[in-house]
Specification:
The two termini are 31 Å apart. The chain has twelve helices and twelve strands. Helix content is 33%, strand content 15%. The relative contact order is 0.16. The strands form two sheets. A seven-stranded parallel beta sheet has the order 8-7-6-9-10-11-12, with helices on both faces. By secondary structure, it is an alpha/beta fold. It folds into two domains: 3-90 and 281-300, Rossmann fold; 92-273, 3-Layer(aba) Sandwich (Rossmann fold). It binds (2R)-2,3-dihydroxypropanoic acid. The site of (2R)-2,3-dihydroxypropanoic acid has 7 residues, from loops.
Length: 311
């Protein structure tokens, strides 16, 4: 009997896809069961590095239950001929919603306004009170214009933003036209965006892609949103840029050393901090789990995986 090990608690709608494929060991004993495992289903917060792979000599597939796969040691897995898969597409809308939510929250000053009300400072509607920025007419820069970047672009475009983006290649011209989006080079994106939102796929070559120099390139008074991966950002440099007022605010769902959050971010009122909830809806998580199970099942049946990690 083939053994499938899952470090993810699978909803029934997903685990039923493994029936008849193999026996399943769940999150309680997954690590100890790796010795016999032919398939591993893993969440994005488990590091599947060379030493973990060594514990699993029979492994044929690692099915990542997430779209980002920086938790996987790709060269080590490929060297062993292990198939790697992820879950593109199913979490696009949920993640774009959180990026929009963070954008609106920081630009309209939600954290400070909400705290002010809770402190009892709301004394009635005031003509000059709580005035903050606009999305309408703002130039939104999108770093990485894949599925999630485009879904976010549709949302902010509907709020009246002007879209510009930087990505490795141009997007479908029809999509670009519908969004009235302009592709620009990286420095132009940083220099001219009022709001910058990160939607690229993280790889070590992009470690601290946003650092002191990049923040200096950004306009004084601009905003940063990150729902991709924390390690894109040098968090100390971000704290400095927020502290000295160069950046007007930041909305973050991801951090370099999760679950730790840079202490300098915690006290800032112009920052919204979420606990990596981009895909956190039951519907989305079920779809992610189902896709991971479908990939594992396909490979164990000798079929090609549905969504292999490219490369
Ligand atoms: C992913 O899938 O990469 C997200 O970060 C988890 O929702």
């Amino acid at each position: 009997m083939k053994q499938i090990v899952t470090a993810v608690e699978l909803p029934e709608e997903a685990s039923e896809l493994l029936e008849g494929v193999g026996s399943v060991v769940g999150p309680a004993g997954w690590r100890e069961a790796l010795g016999e495992a032919e398939a591993l289903i893993t969440p994005v917060n488990v590091r599947v590095g060379a030493s973990l792979l060594e514990e699993a000599p029979r492994l044929r597939i690692v099915a990542n239950a997430g779209v980002g796969y920086d938790n996987l040691d790709i060269p080590a897995a490929r060297e062993r001929g292990i198939i790697l898969t992820n879950t593109p597409g199913v979490l696009t809308e949920a993640t774009a919603d959180i990026a929009l939510l963070l954008t609106l929250a920081v630009v309209r000053g939600l954290p400070a306004a909400e705290r002010s009300l809770r402190r009892g400072e709301f004394s009635g509607w005031g003509f000059g009170d709580y005035l903050q920025g606009d999305i309408q007419g703002a130039r939104v820069g999108i770093l990485g214009m894949g599925r999630i970047g485009q879904a976010y672009a549709r949302r902010v475009r509907a709020s009246g933003a002007i879209i510009q983006y930087h990505s490795r290649g141009p997007i479908n011209p029809a999509v670009e036209q519908a969004l009235e989006a302009t592709r620009v080079d990286r420095d132009t994106l940083f220099r001219t965006s009022d709001i910058l939102s990160i939607h690229a796929a993280y790889s070590p070559s992009l470690h601290h892609h946003l650092d002191t120099a990049t923040f200096r390139l950004m306009q004084r008074g601009s905003y940063l949103v990150n729902t991709a991966r924390g390690a894109f950002i040098d968090e100390q440099a971000l704290v400095t840029a927020l502290h000295d007022g160069h950046l007007a605010g930041a909305g973050l769902d991801v951090y370099e050393h999760e679950p730790k959050v840079h202490p300098g971010l915690q006290d800032l009122e112009n920052v919204v901090l979420l606990p990596h909830i981009g895909s956190a809806t039951p519907k989305t998580r079920t779809a992610m789990a189902r896709m991971a199970c479908e990939n594992a099942a396909a490979v164990l049946r000798g079929e090609p995986p549905l969504t292999p990690i490219p490369g």
